[in-house]
Amino acid sequence: MTETSNKYRDLTQSISAGLSTLRTSAPEVMKSFSDLGRAATASGVIDAKTKELIALALSVAARCDPCIGFHAKALVKLGATRQEVDETLGITTYMGGGPSVMYAANAVAAFDEFARAAALK
Asked: Which domains does the chain have, with CATH numbers?
């Protein structure tokens, strides 16, 4: 992937367009999913950034590139550092082995891509 690649930005935009269609065709399901997401990620005893780090780890474990993109983007907005992401991915790799390390590389690429875009703003 080149330094100027927008793979994850393009992927999340594309998936968002598809989700928009689902919001029209299955509004109750999508509203319920959105409500669940808001409730699950709200700050509580565990802060929002830590919850997003967990979500990134689960995205890697599930091998879900769109999920990786959305959670990497959220982590950049929440001010996560590359070190926090790297340590989270270390645990993910420890628990998930080889397949997780391959998707951990994708997660690093996604985080770096969104971080570069945020720095340009």
From this structure: 8-120 (1.20.1290.10)
Q: From start to end of the chain, where are the E strands?
A: none
From CA 48, how far away is CA 116, in angstroms rounded?
Answer: 22
Digit-coded pLDDT (tens) for 40-78: 998 899 999 999 999 999 999 999 999 999 999 999 999
Cα–Cα dist 104/115, whole Å:
16
Q: Report residue 4's pLDDT band, with 50, 70 and 90 as the boundaries.
A: low
Separation between Cα atoms, residue 92 and residue 90, nearest integer Å: 5
For 24, residues 6+ apart whose C-beta sits below 8 A from its C-beta are: none
Whose tokens are 């999920």? That residue is 67
